[in-house]
């Protein structure tokens, strides 16, 4: 009810805006329109007063709400009329067409004549649209003195229209679908019709008066309003949770429990730890589980739970604390509540939970609470606070950052969701058909625990597909009174009205769409939501303030992408926005229009065309009929907003344009993907006189901007950010005096002629001084007093300080960002002139960001020097200046960012105390920069804190710089305690000395092209800390650049062109998980330092060595016993590793080999002492190693020591191995005769490339777990014998790739009818059919594969087949037997033909592959056409790559009949 009242008040306020300053009234008086306008203005004021009185009354009932809605609609009509009237006022002023001014005020006859002329104009225009005109012409041409009967009837039908005179801004609507629209450029100039306006204004005034009187009558019987505490609708939370299990929060729960009972908060005073997150995220449940944890219960002497809810009432909170705090003997009964609490908690540790805080109206109350509770002498007491609001969390926290709860991870959310749906928390076998729909529902809920509970219980009522799909489609969870929507609605109701508007109208933006701040603010400006409270506020200031508040309340999520802040709304919050805005907002997803519920009060329309598809007669007629039906429910003429997201076929656009023909009152228009000119979709575009926000986008570089945009005098935002077409602005753009924002590529700003007339403009991203002979002078900037951002180029064209002073930058008090640019390629340099010009461009002291580029004067201006006047400066960028005297930054106490670039004369960087706020320092291209200078002297105090907040330090291209402003330390904790990013590059004299303990405090460290290092890169991410070092030739030891002064948390270490790791280094890598060493001399060096006898192990899981030149086998052999968790080993191009022995201990190898009497085994074992080419795998790798990769190890041989390896030869000892790849290592299996199995049965993936010696697949028959097998160039005589066991019962092979073996399948009969021998008598039993497990096959043995027995065997399983023509030279077509065999593959879904050079036609019968979805033809130049018997109806995609033009042309003809046709 009161939302409807607030909405009505808002509309009335907007309607009064045009008459507020009296300018429109003066103009109306000159048009003989004054009294009529005055009557409407007075009535609007009376309505406003009535609504103000209504706000004080107790209102109720749907009838009253309907009356308020009708009153609002009438106010909208008044707003439209006054807005249009103001349009004509502006038009008259711009074009000097206020002819009425000379005809008004002469009295009597003059006024009658004036009225008569306007009436005649109106009648004439109405009559001109009637058949009467045609009838008169026909009469004259025929010489007849009377009208035909048909003409008479037409005239009689037309005459009643004269009593309904339409304004000239409205055009008669042709029949729906009429294609004859003419051209927008032929639209006549809009004219003001005083008689018609008078009638309309009087009608609206009378209707307003009627509605106001009715409302007043009702208000007389209403009592005073009783304001209920919103907290009454909020349930009181208790310490005991009703949820049987906590899902997905174990990590954060255990972290908090550890911190408050054993960790960082135990030895501190009172700690306040907030938990913040949107409604429904499980904050209270989490704290309940923490509160009731036995460890927590035992740790704290006193535990108190208080549900605060909306109002933080200090007295109430203190009373609750006193109530639950046990009394002590020494307490004084006459004490105050605060004193009692202090006495009772003096010697106790306590845990206080303040659940669900929404606001703390008085900050002093919070301080008083902390003061009272902080008197305890015991350390480690904790206050846990839950809140939805980030500003509350920031206000109360005493820790570095609050605990923020977002949606659960997918896996945990899935468990929670299913726990509410099914009793056992899993899909029953007979309910698997619900899985897909359930997943779609879960995706919508975005990990919200309360949403899982709400929707899960709803789905549990009926486990049917119909019910679940209905819930998904209708979003039935929105109707639950105690579910997620109620929780979110509570947050919405708590918002002030202006934020409710900003949030609810954001529903027009598609869900999951990321928006920049200016996108949202532009929409709000266009809807007149942002109303400045005084003249000192700009729209951007108000919009950013509102947006920040919505982020704080959790309605938008803020994310940073490539340095830009973007905002997105959670799906559930988008649903809430749609719900609360449903009375006047509508979102359509074409072509599905019929199923949408439409309110007759809809004024804002958002349309998505992503599902529209291509135009054809059927789809076009369907859309036309649905839009006709829509128009019976939607008043298009009342639309204020139209937003179209997605592209639209030109024919669809024309149909849609017919639908929008009467949309004359649009305030906001978004067309982001225009493929056809504006008039194709918005036929009456030139008549949209109410437009406030216009957003256009196109990828068509030939499309031109509509020239009539300069006629939209109410326009405040022009967004061309996504416009890639021609952007020639009309010369009279300066007519748009209300324009505040132009979002477009920067250069477009420079084309605005006479930009000085746009006095409300808030950003001018490019202003080129004297770009043309007139209209671009510095004086154009004089009256742009609202500017927040300004970039001035070509300042070298200003030759006098007087001309520079005309810009009046000092008077621009809203200016926050300014760039002053002198062209670096200018032909001449006048240092004196440029110095005087810059001196005259003195700025207002509130400027925050200043960039000066290319200035040729000898020094900085005085207002940046000794007389530093820009005290609000936060960022300073100096680029390419010729100064010898630099700014005195000692007064810039708010400086956050400092950048010096390409400055040759800067030799010293002076460090001042004002750098205490600096967060980012960038120094680039300073050719003379040698040293840092502290203002207190050359020597820096050891405990100095000159950069206490610095987070980013970048130094590039400073060839003379030796180091940072202190010796022997790369990162001083005293100097850079907050540093997160450090980069030093292209500084050849810079000597890095990097302490592990220091860099691990940072987020990233990057050094390139410094002394001894080509690259040093350290970074932290969610996956852990990584370090990469690439050395130069003069790097002889890691100790020269890296100091291992503590055990490191680095989890990934990559060394390239580096000396070997020493044992002292390895002992510090206690967290290492991944070790990569490439292009280096060795892996590990000698122990040294007396540490060789130290017992040690590393948690390394993955090692890769690539192109090592040292004793790689020996070094790795010595390292492996210390890596008990190693699961992946990759060895690439290590030519010095020549033999591999698996499954032995190093010590065992030597001792046992000495006892053996010769042979290969003795040689392999003895090689440990004499041959550095041996690599020994220790026994523990049997149970840890899961993935092994040898690539390009040309001399590597697998040595088989059967007496030393329990469990078999070859690699069988590696019983946990799952993935094995042997690539370009031809000798690896050369010592084996393959009479027995060589690989462990645990293998799931086996890749053999260019490995010789394998004749059949019998040695692989034991690989019962194998799912993927790839064999390439393993011998032309390789046959598939033994494959059957991998594909049938007991086998799991799903993917097979065979190449370079042209007779692999030749003569193979898989014989699916295998006889089973009788276990006792050996007699054949009844044969049985078996099926294949193979799903994907890739081969170049075409002749062998395409045989009926093989294809019949694979028919039920094979879904993907790729055929290579490498061995099919001269093959022009498939023989009939091969075509018939191919058709047996009835399950085939994907079929590809690759590199058939001579093949002239595809196999016949492809149409019989009724499951086929994808057909690819690649590198087959001789194929000229598709099969004559066509393609299967099931085909979804046809892919053709580098084939004949004839084939491509035929495939193009199939577009539209096949969903996707891809041709390259």
Describe this structure in words.
The protein is an alpha/beta fold. Among the domains are: 2-220, no CATH class; 231-406, Rossmann fold; 409-494; 582-712, no CATH class. Helices cover 30% and strands 17% of the residues. The strands form eight sheets. The chain has a 27-stranded mixed sheet. It has a seven-stranded parallel sheet with strand order 9-10-11-12-13-14-15, covered by helices on one side. A hairpin with a 2-residue loop joins β7 and β8 (564-568). α1 runs antiparallel to α3 and α40 (1348-1354) packs parallel to α41 (1376-1382). The longest helix is centred in the first third of the chain and has 34 residues, at 62-95.
Counting copies of identical and different chains, the oligomeric state is single chain
**Helical content, roughly?**
25-40%
Q: Which residues sit in consecutive blocks of at least 5 with pLDDT less than 50? A: 99-187, 1146-1170, 1202-1207, 1314-1328
Proportion of residues in extended strands: 15-25%
Distance between the termini: 61 Å
| Shape summary | globular
Biggest beta sheet summary: 27 strands, mixed
Number of strands: 51
Count of discrete alpha- or pi-helical segments spanning 4 or more residues: 42
Radius of gyration: 40 Å
Q: pLDDT average, as an integer?
A: 82
Category by helix and strand content: alpha/beta
GO molecular function: ADP binding; ATP binding
InterPro entries: Apaf_helical, LRR_dom_sf, LRR_R13L1-DRL21, NB-ARC, P-loop_NTPase, Rx_N, WH-like_DNA-bd_sf, WHD_DRP
Domain R13L1/DRL21-like LRR repeat region: 779-902
Domain Disease resistance protein winged helix: 510-577
